[in-house]
Amino acid sequence: MSKLYIVPTPIGNLEDMTFRAIKVLKEVDLILAEDTRTSGKLLKHFEISTHMHSHHMHNEHKTVENLIKRLQAGESIALISDAGTPAISDPGFLLTRACVENNIEVDCLPGATAFVPALVNSGLPNDRFVFEGFLPEKKGRQTRYLALAEENRTMIFYVSPHKLVKTLAEFVHYFGAERPVSVSRELSKLHEETIRGTAAEVLQYFEIKPPKGEIVAVVGGKVSEKESKKDRERE
């Protein structure tokens, strides 16, 4: 039976690959990979010989129609990204939407994604949160910050290492120097690290120690004056 499988892959530690993910990747007719060179190393490690095609942000608009035809013809296809769960700040949404529109079954396997451990590690409230992914590069960046300045839920951002110091400085400017921030980098890898503190403190840390690796920044939501007063009374 034709089906699109969304298959998460490890964000660093290969031991996070699930038995089910390996089974699916071995059994499908085709694997769509964000970067076939990166995914080729993963497939080789788990002795998966299924044929791969490239499917990334630069070609996904052009390939969706043909992939839908292949699924309608009875093939089963798995979609993976370089790391983590496809469609979370990675290609995947367009193909998933097209499958839904064409009544093709979609099965998303549970598995690795960077923002969940970063959120839990932060120690910030995680009963309600908003995932922002990567902020706009230039156009719309300030507008997004101004909207988020009033957000009272915990906020999660993906940040490139060379833009972390700039982003933390923007957190100080738009959210305030005392806003709680947690930065996790290299999750599940050998040099995993989580730095917590105020926006100003975390900025100062990374100004001295330039960051490397994959980064997730978690920011506490705006606390109302009423809630702030209650916290002070408890202290």
TrEMBL record:
Keyword Cytoplasm appears in the UniProt entry: yes
- The EC number(s) attached to this protein equal 2.1.1.198
Which compartments does it reside in? Answer: Cytoplasm
Q: Which CDD domains match?
A: RsmI
Q: Name one GO biological process term.
A: methylation
Catalytic activity reported: cytidine(1402) in 16S rRNA + S-adenosyl-L-methionine = 2'-O-methylcytidine(1402) in 16S rRNA + S-adenosyl-L-homocysteine + H(+)
The record's keywords, sorted A to Z, are: Cytoplasm, Methyltransferase, rRNA processing, S-adenosyl-L-methionine, Transferase
Q: Give a yes or no for keyword Thylakoid in this entry.
A: no
- List the HAMAP family hit by this protein, alphabetically: 16SrRNA_methyltr_I
PANTHER family, A to Z: RIBOSOMAL RNA SMALL SUBUNIT METHYLTRANSFERASE I
Q: What is this protein called?
A: Ribosomal RNA small subunit methyltransferase I
Which organism is this protein's natural source?
Flavobacterium buctense
